[in-house]
Amino acid sequence: MTTAALDLTADVVELTRALVDTPSESGAEGPLADAVEAALRALPHLTVDRVGHSVVARTALGRAERVIVAGHLDTVPAAGNLPARLADGRLYGLGACDMKGGVAVALRLAAALTAPARDVTYVFYECEEVEGDRNGLHRIAADRPELLAADLAILMEPSDAGVEAGCQGVLCADVTVRGTRAHTARAWRGENAAHRSAEVLQALADHVPERVIVDGLEYREGLSAVAVRAGVAGNVVPDTCVISLNARFAPSRSPQEAEEYVRRIIPGGHEFVVTEVVPGALPGLDHAAVASLVDFLGVAPRPKLGWTDVARFTRLGVPALNFGPGDPVLAHTAGEFVEVGQLAECERKLGEWLRG
Amino acid sequence: MTTAALDLTADVVELTRALVDTPSESGAEGPLADAVEAALRALPHLTVDRVGHSVVARTALGRAERVIVAGHLDTVPAAGNLPARLADGRLYGLGACDMKGGVAVALRLAAALTAPARDVTYVFYECEEVEGDRNGLHRIAADRPELLAADLAILMEPSDAGVEAGCQGVLCADVTVRGTRAHTARAWRGENAAHRSAEVLQALADHVPERVIVDGLEYREGLSAVAVRAGVAGNVVPDTCVISLNARFAPSRSPQEAEEYVRRIIPGGHEFVVTEVVPGALPGLDHAAVASLVDFLGVAPRPKLGWTDVARFTRLGVPALNFGPGDPVLAHTAGEFVEVGQLAECERKLGEWLRG
Fold first, then answer.
1. How far apart are CA B101 and CA B104, in angstroms?
2. Cα–Cα dist B332/B17, whole Å
3. CA nearest to A198, candidates B268, B266, B196
4. Where does the Peptidase M20 dimerisation domain lie (chains A, B) (predicted)?
5. Which of A64, A270, B4, B271 has the highest Cβ tally under 10 A?
6. pLDDT band, very low/low/confident/very high, at A38 (cuts 50, 70, 90)
7. Interface test with B, best of A226, A244, A333 (most B CBs within 10 A)
8. How far apart are CA A172 and CA A244, in angstroms?
């Protein structure tokens, strides 16, 4: 497949449309990364590096501050939502919201801002929608950590053109309830693990998640059974029932505190194994660069409830926030779209702040 | 594969061994059915018919009573338990208990009893261990119903050389608990179907099954969740949780009564769909032929808790019971065996009663 060259001087809506119409499901970002790289290499004010299917383009003006503007190139799988379609002031299509609209804004700024007041590192990366160890930022941090040095990272994830600060942590765990197998014709000889699991599910149903205030932002936690699996055969009392949990915890809790918290909610006597835990990120509204951007935008920061690469930057020592076009609730939906007005607004505001 | 001819004059243990060593998992009974058919056709006192991989052999002596002696030829899949092995007075191997020991007894009697006091119909049939519509008896009843006319059917299913009378019915149902999907980062926007299912599982855990007395026999009922399935993705609040039930009900309840009974136990507000229901069979100890055999054997009948083809014969209007060598609890276990002593005992007792 030949991918058309990207015209970074085109209108931001047309550029978003071109990005949407270049399919780039996770793992298949190659052609889009090639097009992005070629367009950026044509710009003499930028130094361009490529790591896998991620592209990094930097100004080198010797400014006092450096800001990362980042967006992932990949999308979740298509859901009958290609090609892009413009209607009623909205651009519909796979990735329009999450997050090719944000990528288009960043590409436009990369081309337009030849001498910003802050040095800028633009990062367009692969595999954000899949396992963390395939994530392009993870790979760049491992192979070329110097490319991610900055005073602030702005992730252009959909945040309705507002600022979403920090993000909640995620803890995944399996609770295994044991019993004893038996033929259902003699069920009393066994112990039904599915029946025993009622107490775990009831504890989850009864639990009222907390609302934690950090830096004035309310992080609403969650604890959900996302899977229940029991069953040996149609005539066998099951000896095992596995309940998979997904907990979202406020960034003020450490992963260890989150685990202790969840363990206290689950009735004892069952196996509890943490399968994954990633810390959240504190909002960091006291960082100078963060405060400057928030002041400039004149918006009240909101808490980010989902996990984003903001947490990854935080762990790398770079304060970060989400600021991008698109309603985050539309992400991963077949009907996702981005408001044309938000594309223009984000481009204008972020451009003004970077120009200084 | 060439299957060795069966020698029906061989010792019952050697004959059982030969049957075990002729593999016949459900659907692959052909070679064993061929061998059984050939051996029976060599006997001039029997009329032999073949239906699929089932073989029916009858005396036609004009006796006042006709008795069916039946055994299925198929086994569950092998579990490293072939070939047969004789040790400590036990014959081990796939199907030794369920139910090639019983088949061997029936074959020996078919060969030996040239002029029994009761006419006998020997039925060796296929596909008992799988779906009911593949069952050899089902097919014979459909294609050649006259072959199954009788005053009593003796199923040589393992019953520890005792009489197991009647059998419980089986009701399978799916309870579907509904909720609303949501991203786990905003779990409160959804309703977790797995959490809601706690009340169903708790009701099952709290339920104490009844013990129902019929004809002096105690049928101990059961109601088990045999499967629980919920889960959309690791970060999604599930909108559906399906709990599959397997109920065993006393033969004094009709299928409709059994369904009403189970519905009363499950909390309301959830979808309840019966996926399968098969009635049980009353013990029928008041039938003359049944009473005669039970008296002759001098054993106290026990209730059959699992479902067997006794129920199928009952529906065909033929009183039926289980009487065969082997401990029923060993059926379908890798270590199944049959006591050599029980093989001889069953052959002797049943032979004496049929001779009259």
1. 5
2. 17
3. B196
4. 169-266
5. A270
6. very high
7. A226
8. 7
Asked whether A225 and B230 are in contact (CB, 8 A), the reply is: yes
Residue B233: exposed, middle, or buried by beta-carbon count in 10 A (0-12, 13-18, 19+)? middle
Distance to chain A for B245, nearest Cα, Å: 8
pLDDT of residue B306: 82
The yes-or-no answer on residue B128 being catalytic is yes
With a CB cutoff of 8 Å and minimum separation 6, the contacts of A12 are A104, A105, A108, A343, A344, A347
A307 has a chain B CB within 8 A of its CB: yes
Question: Tokens at residue A349, please?
Answer: 């505001």
The dihedrals phi and psi of B337, each to the nearest 5 degrees, come to: -150, 170
Q: Do A192 and B306 make contact, defined as CB atoms within 8 angstroms?
A: no
DSSP string, B42-56: T-TT-EEEEETTEEE
Active-site hit among B29, B126, B128, B157: B128
ipTM of the complex: 0.81
B71 φ/ψ angles, rounded to the nearest 5 degrees: -150, 145
Residue-wise pLDDT for B320-351, tens only, equals 999 999 999 898 888 999 999 999 999 999 99
**Inter-chain touch B204–A225, beta carbons under 8 Å:** no
- The strand pair at A152-155 and A66-72 is best described as parallel
At A297-333, the pLDDT tens digits run 999 999 988 888 999 999 999 999 999 999 998 988 8
| pLDDT number for residue A1 | 45
Contact A86, A17 (CB under 8 A): yes
The pairing of strands B163-165 and B85-87 is unpaired
**A208 interfaces chain B, CB cutoff of 8 Å:** no
Report the SS3 class of residue B88.
coil
Instruction: Decide: helix, strand or coil at residue A3.
Output: coil
pLDDT digits (tens, 9 = 90+) for B100-120: 999 999 999 999 999 999 999
Sign of CA dihedral B267, B268, B270, B271: positive
Domains and CATH numbers, chain A: 12-166+281-355 (3.40.630.10), 169-278 (3.30.70.360)
Residue of A29, A119, A128, A309 marked active site: A128
Interchain proximity A222–B307, CB inside 8 Å: no
Q: Which residues contact A40 (CB under 8 A, 6 or more apart)?
A: A46, A48, A55, A57, A107, A110, A122
Distances in whole angstroms, Cα of residue B208 to Cα of each of A178, B149, B219, B222, B223: 20, 40, 14, 8, 9
Q: Would you call B9 helix, strand, or coil by DSSP?
A: coil
Angle between helices A12-20 and A101-112 (to 10 degrees): 130
Exposed / middle / buried, residue A115 (Cβ in 10 Å: 0-12, 13-18, 19+) = exposed
Distance CA A353, CA A177 (A): 55
pLDDT for A76 beyond 70: yes
Contact A219, A168 (CB under 8 A): yes
> How far is Cα A305 from Cα A281, in angstroms, rounded to an integer?
11
The series of mean pLDDT values per 10 residues for chain B, 356 residues long, is 82 97 96 98 98 98 97 93 96 97 98 97 95 93 97 96 93 97 91 98 98 94 98 90 97 96 97 94 90 93 89 93 94 92 97 94
- Angle (CA) A238 B250 B152, round 5°: 115
Q: Which residues of A touch B98 (CB under 8 A)?
A: none
Strands A337-339 and B66-72, bridge-based pairing: unpaired
Distances from the Cα of B146 to the Cαs of B37, B107, B121, B154, B229, in angstroms?
Answer: 19, 21, 11, 17, 45
